[in-house]
Amino acid sequence: MKNLYLLNTPGCDHTAVALGLALNFRERGLKVGFLKPVGCPASSGLDEEAALMHQVMSPDAPDESIMPFMAGPSYLSHHQSLSRLKDRLAQAYQQVAARSDVVVISSPAAPYVATGFQMDVASLATALNAAVLLVVRVENDFSADQAIFYNEYLELKNIPVAGTVFNNAPRSLLAKIQGVYAPLLAERNYRSLGIIPAQPALLAPTVEEIHQVLGGEILAGEENLGLKVEDIVVGAMTIESALSYLRRSPNKAVVTGGDRADLALAALETSTSAVILTGGLYPDVKVVARAQDKGIPLILVHHDTYSAVERLNAISHHIRATDQEAVAWAKNNVSTYCRWQEILDYLDGKGITNPA
Questions:
Q1: How far is CA 60 from CA 95, 239, 322, in A?
Q2: 3-state SS, residue 159
C-alpha cells in the first residue's frame, strides 16, 4: 500500500495539489483513496477540502471513512478518549485502504493541529506508515527557510519525505525559486519536486462568495454574482487620490461608505466586479441606476468599512466538485508543474536520483 501524507504549512491551501495528484494518479490507472484524519471546520461547519475530495474521488464512501475527527479551536474541551480516537482512525484508514492502491492523506491547516491528542502530522505519518510531501506557499525568502525547517524536522522524526512542492508561487519569484530555493534544498539532499505558479484569476473568490460572508442587500447586478474579485480597494480617500487606484486595479471589489456616491460612481466606470457600500447607508439613486445599467453587483452591508475589509481579507475561493473548470485546472497544474510520477516512484521504493 502506498500512503502519501501532504503536509500543509500554515497559510498554504494545498487542496488543489491534493486533488491534482489524486486525479493524475487515477488517470495512471491507480485506485486512489483519500483520508483527512483531522478536519478543521470552516464557517459552514464542514471541512471544505474533505467535502470536495469526497465528492470527486470517493462519492460512495461513508463520511466517517474520509474524515474521522474534527478539531476546532476548542477541541481539547471535548476530552475524547485517545484510544477511541485511534480506533476510529484505524478503522477509517482500513476502509479507505481496502479499495485503494494509493491513499492520499491530507493534513489540517497547520502541522501542529491536534498535537494534544497525538494526531499531529508527525504522529500520524508514523502511525500510517506514510511518506510526506511538503507543500509550501511561496511569499518571500522565508518560504525557503520554512521548507528547509520542515524537511529537517521530519528527518529528525525519521519520517520519509518524498519531496517539496512550492505552491502558489508569484511570477516574480519563479526564477528565484528555481535558481536559489531549490538548490538550497538540494545542498541538504532535500528534493524539490515542483513549482506551481500562482494564478490569481482562478483562485479569486466570486462576488457571490463575498456576499455569503458579508451578507447585506443586493441592490443591483444580481445576475453577475459569479464575477471574480481579484483585488480589494478601500474607497476612504478623496476622489482625486482614488481615481489612480481604481483605474489600475482590474476585477476589483470597491468598499466604501454608502454616502460616498462620488467614489461609487467612479468605481462603476472602471473594471469593477462589485461595489460594497458600508454602514447601512442607502446610496444615491444615481449609483443604483448606474450599477443596474452596467450590470455590476452593488451590495449594501451594515458593517463598517474596517470590519467589512477584515472579513474580505479572510475569504478565499474554494474549488467545488461541480466546477469542472477548476477541477481540470487542479489536475493540469500538477501534471504540468509537479513531477508527480517521481512521487509514485518514491512510494514504490525506487527513490529519486536527481535531488534538484
A1: 12, 56, 16
A2: coil
- CA-based nearest residue to 198, from 139, 284, 238, 242: 139
Q: How many CA atoms lie within 13 A of 27 on its CB side?
A: 13
Number of H helices, E strands in the chain: 16, 13
Say what the pTM is. Answer: 0.74
User: Strand, helix or coil at 191?
Assistant: coil
CA angle 39, 115, 167 (to 5 degrees): 55
Per-residue pLDDT tens digits for 331-346:
999 999 999 999 999 9
Given a contact cutoff of 8 angstroms between Cβ atoms, the answer to whether 303 and 278 are in contact is yes
Name 298's bridge partners. Answer: 220, 275
The answer regarding whether domain 205-313 maps to CATH 3.40.50.300 reads no
Cell numbers linked to 187: 545542498
Domain locations in the chain as residue ranges: 2-201+319-347, 205-313
- Distance, in Å, from the CA atom of 9 to the CA atom of 142, rounded to the nearest integer, reads 12
- Say which residue the cell 464512501 belongs to: 61
Instruction: Give domain 2-201+319-347's CATH number out of 3.40.50.300, 2.60.40.10, 3.50.50.60, 3.30.1330.90.
Output: 3.40.50.300
Cell 475569504 -> residue: 315
The set of cell numbers assigned to 118 is: 497525538
Q: How far apart are CA 217 and CA 83, in angstroms?
A: 49
pLDDT in tens, 33-87: 998 888 876 544 456 777 777 777 766 666 556 777 777 778 787 666 777 888 8
d(CA 167, CA 165): 6
